[in-house]
Amino acid sequence: MIYKDRNNSTSERVEHLLSLMTLEEKIGQLIQPFGWQTYENIDGKIALTESFKKQVENGGIGSLYGVLRADPWTGVTIETGLSPEEGAEAVNEIQRYAIEHSRLGIPILIGEECSHGHMAIGATVFPVPLSLGSTWNVDLYREMCRAVARETRSQGGAATYSPVLDVVRDPRWGRTEECFGEDAYLISELAVASVEGLQGESLDQDDSVVATLKHFVGYGSSEGGRNAGPVHMGKRELLEVDMLPFKKAVEAGAVSIMPAYNEIDGMPCTTNRELLQDILRTEWGFDGMVITDCGAIDMLATGHDTAEDGMDAAVQAISAGIDMEMSGEMFGKYLLEAVRQGKLAPSIVDTAVRRVLNLKFTLGLFDTPYADPKKASEVIGSEEHIALARKIAGEGIVLLKNEGKVLPLSKESGTIAVIGPNADVGYNQLGDYTSPQPTSRVTTVLGGIRSKFAKEPDRVLYAPGCRIKDDSKEGFDYALSCAKQADTIVMVVGGSSARDFGEGSIDLKTGASKVTDHSWSDMDCGEGIDRMSLTLSGVQLELVQEIHKLGKPVIVVYINGRPIAEPWIEDNAHAILEAWYPGQEGGHAIADILFGDVNPSGKLTISIPKHVGQLPVYYNGKRSRGKRYLEDDSQPRYPFGYGLSYTEFSYSNLKVQPEVIPADGVATVTVDVTNTGALEGAEVVQMYISDTVSNISRPAKELKGFRKVTLAPGESRTVEFTVGAEQLQYIGLDYKPVVEPGEFRVLVGKHVNDTLNAILIVQED
């Protein structure tokens, strides 16, 4: 048959298969049930459920979500979950049944969560995206995405619901940790790298997966930082800022995209034709698949209230450009009847099915539908990937303060007390969207420091002191007794996105966390966990203050998923490391930084305010937004791009050549960077552009280039940037990109508030 012959073109195969399908089979391709509900693990043997078998035989299933996902939502634990090899075998069993027991033998698209590692038992857990962004190392991130793709595809997963390309505007939002930061240009560079890394050279290879761009669009600008809240944003900002990373990723070849839960100016993204049709498909030329977020269609009738009922919601969604529904409830329930009642044209269904089938053929699922369990056991959690996780965690750690150069610590500096609720709780340093991990797979900060003193274990003391959220101080006395015996104290505090909570704290439709007061829940960040404050939860600050009274060097290590604003700690700690959620190798990476085996090179991709009342505090706001409050100025405690090193870097000889260019011209920007310290180190050289006068108000500064360079002591290097239309343009009066003639300032330096300046003139054509 034509569609089964790989020698035919993809379009020929798609059209032939489509012509053979019944309406029921077509609609089946547009739904995506929960994958973990398709089988049972009985003593290591996989048994497919009768409901899954029936669904396959009655029209089929287009895709499955999270077959191998493990967390409290799925109920899959370390004990009940599948090993890498078993996971591949389970996916093969599912795929085999679908192919052999459906009328046309259409394979299933297996979609998995892989934001910072495949969310399956045994997979490598890399740092969260906020940490990945802090590396400013695009090549290293691309390498990580290749590793994630290899691990996921080796088990049969063919699509991942990442990268998250949302631009963060209010860090109280619980999903801040899933994002790269507050700057659209930086996010765009990482977006392109993620598509290149995940999708590889060809999607039909056994080490490539579909990249799904999410959440399209404006999701990081919700009202009050509340998850999925309304977004109040003008079209110009939407096009210029929030859409930029998506546009660049589409241009890089992304083949899947996920609309956001939120509404923009009253229009839910799930049914926004201007977004999904006019811009995405017509202007950008996107020809891939659009899949909803979980439960998003249901929200149209029970949240946004823009649909009368489930059928109306389903018809609105598919008519607006949705091709597949994650969770499959609305499409599965209503589309068939909608066509029969004349509420939905069959051609609209055909268009969506065509895109789904095209993606499956492009992935090679019809020709090579099965995974190799042996390869899965070799690739997943390999030593190579673990080493990569340690390296990328080290580059993502940001040194915020180093008073008196207390860091790096000497291995001869006496006894060290490691204190705090995040010092030895592995799951707390992994972030949201992470499967449970055996203790042996995660190196905590305590474990990392102890590894530096393997021959002298008595030199490292430990006390948790308190929990993340609990108000109990019963652990203070023991923590103080340990600190009194130590010469140096490392306080490991912060937050937790560990989904380790009790019954009733999960949204069963979306899997998002719910706020709970259960005493065993330390979760204060992650999806569904938005905050009113950016301070430390519980009694952590009081613990640090009590320890500080001992008069000994106090080094604070933050492990968390959003910025922390604690003025007392910033004023009184001798050193502060921001580690975000550094993944399974985070403890080693932090210890490497503490003892100088790795020189810190991370830089902030999100501004850290002095106080939550300053929000929004992102660096590239408009010039007109004012300079101060009654109580304080509007500047953050730590600005965008900030991060210290154990060495020093100087900048000199900034040049723009030529200094005058036409609107379509190009200038070269060069600057000399010198390591003036005594240690080798890496510096992130950042270039910003400022349009001094424009027809429409502009941000004071915008990041338009960066380079990460490693320099030996005394070494200098000339770093070069190119400035042209892409760096100078903005969305003009007619909502089209324009480069206006006039004066531009080019700023290059260590961070947004520490730069050299030069002038570039753009002439009239």
UniProtKB/TrEMBL annotation:
The Fibronectin type III-like domain extends over: 683-752
The molecule here is called Beta-glucosidase
Give the matching SMART domains: Fn3_like (SM01217)
InterPro entries tied to this protein: Cellulose_Degrad_GH3, Fn3-like, GH, Glyco_hydro_3_C, Glyco_hydro_3_C_sf, Glyco_hydro_3_N, Glyco_hydro_3_N_sf, Ig-like_fold
Q: Which organism is it from?
A: Paenibacillus segetis
Q: Which domain of life is it from?
A: Bacteria
Q: Which UniProt keywords apply?
A: Hydrolase
